[in-house]
Write a structure and sequence with these properties.
It is a single chain. The chain is α/β, with parallel strands linked by helices and 413 residues long. 34% of the residues lie in helices and 23% in strands. It has two domains: 184 residues, Rossmann fold (3-Layer(aba) Sandwich); 205 residues, Rossmann fold, CATH 3.40.50.10300. The strands form five sheets. The protein has an eight-stranded mixed β-sheet with strand order 13-12-9-14-17-18-19-20, sandwiched between helices. The radius of gyration is 24 Å and the shape is elongated.
Length: 413
C-alpha cells in the first residue's frame, strides 16, 4: 500500500523522478525544516528516506519525517546494516543529502568518524561514489572557526557539495529548501546537453514611475523566467539573468542583473550582448510596452478628481538582440489574451519574423490557471514559418525543459 503522503510526488516537476534520496538530519535547531526539504524533493519526483541522529530526535520526532516522506525513518543502525543497504544493491541511493549538518557532524565526516547513523551513511556513500550534498547550520562564529573552515574545504576536496548557509542575525542559517532542492537537482541532472553554453534570460515585469510613489506595471511574476534559468543551469549552461522586480527568486547559480524600468532592462541587455558572446537569449520578461511621457518629481495630489497621463512607447528589447548578436539563438515569449489558437500562431509567427526570432513561445494569459503568477503554463511553440507545436498545460519547470529540448535540438543542428 502506498503511503498517502506520497500523493504529492512529481506534482511540481519530474527532475528527480526515479531517484532515491537519503535525507540525513542532525542535531541543529534547523532540523525543524527537514520536513519541508523532504516534501520539496518529493514534489519534484524523488523517493525520500530520512535518517536521523540521536541529536536530531531531540528536536523533531521521527514520526514527522515518516509522515513527510511516506517511508520508515532510520534512527539507529541494526543487523539490517541500513547504511550499507542504501549504498549498494537494489536499494542503492542516488544522493545523500545532509540538511541540516552541524559543525560536530562536519568534523566527524572530515575525520572519518562513523559513530552516528548519518556519518555512517556518508562514509559508505563516499566509498561507493554516491553524490553527497551537505547544508550547514550553526552560529557564524563556529562557521568561521579555522578548523571548521578547513574541514569544509576537506569535504569539498572529497567531492562533497556544500550548500552555503545564509549569514544573518549572528547565525549561519540553513539555506532555503528551494536552494537545497535546486542544488540536489543539479547533482542529479539527467541531461548535460547545454554544457559550455552561455545563456542570457530576461524575466519579470518592469515598473515605470509616474511620481515618487506611483508606478505603471503588469502582473508578471517572473516564475517562467526563473524556471528556464534553473533548467539551463541543470543542463550545464552558464546563465545571466536581467531581472525586473518579479516575486520568484532567481537560482543562486545564475548571475543576476537587477533592473526596474524597460529602459534599464534594455541597457543591461545591450551591455551584456556587447561584452560577450551568448549562444542563447530567452526573452521571457514582460517589459512594459508603455511608460509615462512625463515623470512628476512630487507625489500627485490624491485630492485631484482627474489625472491625465500621456504614455510613450517603451523601447522594444527583443528588437535589439539580433542587431547586436546575429548568431545568438533567440527564443521570445509572446503573451496574448483570450484569442483563438489560429490567431495566436499567426501573431507569434509574424512577430518572430519581425525581430528575427528563431522560436516564439506563445501563451494565452487570459486562460484560467496559466496566466501571470500561476504555477502552470500552456504554450504553443511557433517557428518563423508558422509551424507550431502545442505544449500542454504543465508546471512551468516542465514547460521550461520541453522548450529547451526544442531549442537545443535546433542549436545542435
Amino acid at each position: 500500500m502506498v503511503h498517502p503522503s506520497k500523493d504529492i510526488t512529481g506534482k511540481e516537476g519530474q527532475e528527480l523522478k526515479g531517484k532515491r534520496i537519503v535525507l540525513g538530519v542532525t542535531g541543529s535547531v534547523s532540523a525543524y525544516r527537514a520536513a519541508d526539504i523532504a516534501r520539496d524533493l518529493m514534489r519534484h519526483g524523488a523517493d525520500v528516506h530520512a535518517v536521523m541522529t540521536s541529536g536530531a530526535q531531540k528536536i523533531i520526532h521521527p514520526n514527522l519525517l515518516e509522515w513527510a516522506t511516506g517511508n520508515p525513518v532510520v534512527t539507529e543502525l541494526t543487523g539490517k546494516i541500513e547504511h550499507v543497504a542504501f549504498t549498494t544493491g537494489k536499494e542503492k541511493a542516488d544522493l545523500i543529502l545532509v540538511a541540516p549538518v552541524t559543525a560536530n557532524t562536519i568534523g566527524k565526516i572530515a575525520s572519518g568518524i562513523d559513530d552516528t547513523t548519518v556519518t555512517s551513511y556518508v562514509s559508505s556513500a563516499l566509498g561507493a561514489g554516491i553524490p553527497i550534498v551537505i547544508a550547514p547550520a550553526m552560529h557564524d562564529t563556529m562557521l568561521t572557526h579555522p578548523i571548521i573552515e578547513e574541514n569544509l574545504k576537506k569535504l569539498e576536496r572529497a567531492g562533497i557539495t556544500l550548500v552555503p548557509p545564509v549569514i544573518e542575525e549572528g547565525k549561519a542559517k540553513l539555506s532555503s529548501p528551494k536552494v537545497i532542492l535546486e542544488i540536489a537537482i543539479s547533482r542529479l541532472a539527467k541531461k548535460n546537453d547545454m554544457s559550455g553554453m552561455k545563456v542570457l534570460i530576461t524575466g519579470g515585469p518592469t515598473v515605470e514611475p509616474i511620481d515618487p510613489v506611483r508606478i505603471l506595471t503588469n502582473r508578471s511574476s517572473g516564475k517562467m523566467a526563473v524556471a528556464l534559468a534553473s533548467a539551463c543551469i541543470r543542463r550545464g549552461a552558464e546563465v545571466v539573468m536581467v531581472y525586473g522586480p518579479g516575486v520568484a527568486e532567481p537560482p543562486s547559480s545564475a548571475r543576476v542583473v537587477r533592473v526596474e524600468t524597460a529602459r534599464q532592462m534594455l541597457a543591461a541587455v545591450e551591455k551584456e550582448l556587447s561584452s560577450k558572446r551568448f549562444d542563447l537569449a530567452i526573452a521571457a520578461a514582460a517589459a512594459s510596452d508603455y511608460g509615462p511621457a512625463r515623470y512628476h518629481n512630487e507625489k500627485l495630489d490624491s485630492k485631484r478628481e482627474d489625472v491625465v497621463l500621456e504614455l510613450r512607447r517603451s523601447p522594444k528589447i527583443i528588437e535589439r538582440v539580433k542587431e547586436l548578436s546575429p548568431s545568438t539563438f533567440l527564443l521570445i515569449f509572446k503573451a496574448e489574451h483570450s484569442v483563438t489558437r489560429v490567431e495566436m500562431v499567426s501573431r507569434a509567427a509574424k512577430r518572430g519574423r519581425e525581430v528575427r526570432a528563431d522560436l516564439v513561445a506563445a501563451n494565452d494569459v487570459g486562460r484560467e490557471g496559466v496566466g501571470f503568477g500561476s504555477e502552470d503554463n500552456e504554450v504553443v511553440l511557433v517557428d518563423p514559418r508558422g509551424k507550431s507545436v502545442s505544449l500542454p498545460k504543465a508546471r512551468k519547470s516542465a514547460i521550461a525543459d520541453r522548450l529547451l529540448d526544442s531549442v537545443v535540438a535546433r542549436i545542435r543542428t
